[in-house]
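Q: C-alpha cells for this one, please.
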Amino acid sequence: MTTLVRDQEKVQPSPSPVREPRRLPSRRTILLVGAGIIWILGFLILHGTSTLTLPASELTDLHRSLNQFNAWVAANRADNPVFLYIFTPLRAVVDNVANLFITLFAASSTGLRLPEIGWFGTVGLLGWIAFAVGNARVALLTVAVFTFLGFQGLFVEATYTFALVLTAVLLTLLVGIPVGILAGVSTRVATVITPVLDFMQTLPTFVYLAPLALIFLIGPASAVIATVIYAAPPVIRLTAHGIRSIPENTREASDSLGTTGLQRLLTLQLPMARRTVVMGINQSTMAALSMVTIAALIAAPGLGQVVVRALQSLDVGTAVNAGLSIVLLAIVLDRVTTAASRRAEPGAARTGRISRRNRYIVLGVTLAVALVMVQLSRSSLWAAAFPKDFNIGPAIVQAVSSASQWMQSNLSLFTVSLRESVTTGILNPFQSLLTDTPFYILVGVIALAAYALGGWKLAAVTTACLGVIIYLGLWSDSMVTLAGTLVATVLVMVLGVVFGVAMGRSQRVDQLLRPILDAGQTMPAFVYLVPFLGLFGATRFTAIIAGIIYAAPVAIKITADGIAAISPTVLEAAISSGSTPWQVITKVQLPMARKSLALAANQGLIYVLAMVVVGALVGAGGLGYDVVAGFVQSSLFGKGLAAGLAIVFLGILLDRMTQAAAAAPLRKIAVAKSPST
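A: Here is the predicted structure, written as C-alpha cells:
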C-alpha cells in the first residue's frame, strides 16, 4: 500500500509554473515610440521641405544687426560710460596681472625680449615650488618636463601658456573661494548660485570667446577672463561641498564653546575642508589650461596658437609637438596640485619619510639652489634663453610628419574604409534625417519626447530653446551639430557600458583602467584632435572620433561607479537563484544602474558637444564652423555670435532632457531566473 502511494506521488504531474503577467508598455514608452513614428512619417512624406537651410555665406537680418552692434561697440568703446568705467578698467587690471607673469617667465616687451627670470631660473624656481607644496617626486617631474619643453623648442610658448594659466587660476581663486565659502555656510546662497554654476558648466568653451572678444577685445585679457568664467565652477562647488560636509556634531561642539560664526569658519570649517578646497584648485587649474589653449582663437599667446596654426595648415608634426607640450604641462599641473591636496590631509606632514624639521632644512637648501639658478638666468645668456643647439623640436616634427605620411599611405585602406563606412552608413543618413525633416515636425517630436521624460515644464523649456535656435537663423547648422553629437554620444555610451561594467564587476580591471581614464581627463580638448587628424584627415569624422575619446573617460567612470554601488545582497540573491553572469548584468546590474547610465549620457553629451564644436578646426562644420568663421571674418561676426548662442540653447536642451531621464523613477526589477528554477 505504501509502495502504491509512493508510485502515485511520483506520477502526479508537477504544478505548472506561475507566469507573471506581461507588463504593458508604460505611458512614457508609448509617447517616445509615438514621437519616433511621427518623425519617420514626417521625414518620408515631407522630405526636404521647410528645412530652414541657410548657406554659409548668407546672413539673416539678425546677423546683420549683430554686425552693426559690433561696429557700434568699436566706434563707441572710448566714450561709452559702461566701457569707460567698468569694462576698460577691468581689462586693464587683468592685462597688468597677466603681463606681470608674462614678463616674469616668458618675455619682456623691451630689449632682447628676454624674461626677468630665464629658463634656468624658471626651472629651478618651479621645481622648488613643486617640492614645497608637494614632494620630491613631483619636483623632479616638474624640472624634467620644463627642461624637455626647452628641448622641444617650445619653452617660450609654454611659459606664455603657464603665465596665463597662473593669472587665471589666481583670479579664479580670488573670486571662487569666497563665493564657495558663502555657498557652504548659507543655504540661500547655495540655492541661488547652483543653477548659475550648472549653466556655466553646460556651455562649451567656444561660447565664451565671441562675446568676451567683443567686450574686452582680443588678447590675453579676454583669454584670462574667459578662463576665469570657465574654471570658477569646480572650486566654488568643491569649497562649498567641503564646508557642508563637516559633521553636524562637530559644528555643535564648536558652537557649545561659544565660538562666533567667523571663528567657526576660520578655526573649524576651513581647516577641515582644506583637502576638498585643494581638490577644487586642482580641477580649476586643469580647466584653466584647457581654456587657455582654446583661447588662442582670440589671440591668446602660447602653445594654443601653435596648435591652431598647425591644425589650420594640416601640419600634423608641429601639432603633435605642441600637443605633447600641452599634455606634459597638464600632467605637471595635475600632479603638483594632487600632491598638494594629499599634503593637506590631517597628519600628512607627520607621516612622510622625513621629519618636519629635516624637511624645513631641505626646503631651505633647495630654495638657496633655486635662487642661485634664478640669478644665473638673469646674468648669463645661456641660462636666460634655452640654447638653440639643444633644440630637437624640428626632429620631432619631421619624425611625426613622416610617421603620419606612412600611416596615411599604408593604413589608408583601413582608415578610409572606416571613415567612409561610418560617414555614409551612419552619419549621413542620420544627419539627413535631422536636416531634411520639416522643422515644425522636428520641434513637435522633440517637445513630445521632452514631455514624456519630464512633463509639461520640460516640454516648454525644450520648445523655447528650439524657438530661439530658429530665431537665430541657424536651424540647419544646429541639426548638423546635433547629428554629430548624438552619433558620438551613442558610441560613447557603448564604450561606457562595456568598460564601465567590467570595472564595476572587477576591482582588478578598475585598478588597471582608472589611472588611464584619469590621465585622459587631464588632457585639453585640442590635444585629442591632433592624432586623429593624422589618421583620418580634416573631416567631421575626425571631430567625432576625437569627441568619443574625449568623452569616454567620464562616461566609463560614472557607469563603473554606478555598477559598483549596487548592493552585494542583490547580486548574491540573483546568483543563488541560478542567474548566469550575462543575466546578472542585463537583468539586474544595468537596470539598477539606470540613473548612473543616464548621468553618464548627460555628461557624455556635454563633453561630446564641446568637442564636436572645437572640431570645426578640422572640418566638422555646423555651428562650430560658424563660430570660427566669425572670428576670422568681421562680416560673419554676427553669424558667429548667433552660432555661439545656438550652441548654448542646444546644450541646455540636451542637458535638461538627459537630466530628466536620469531623475525618472525606477521600475521594479525582477531577479532573473534560469529555466531550471
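A few notes: The mean pLDDT is 84. Residues 30 and 631 are 45 Å apart (CA to CA).
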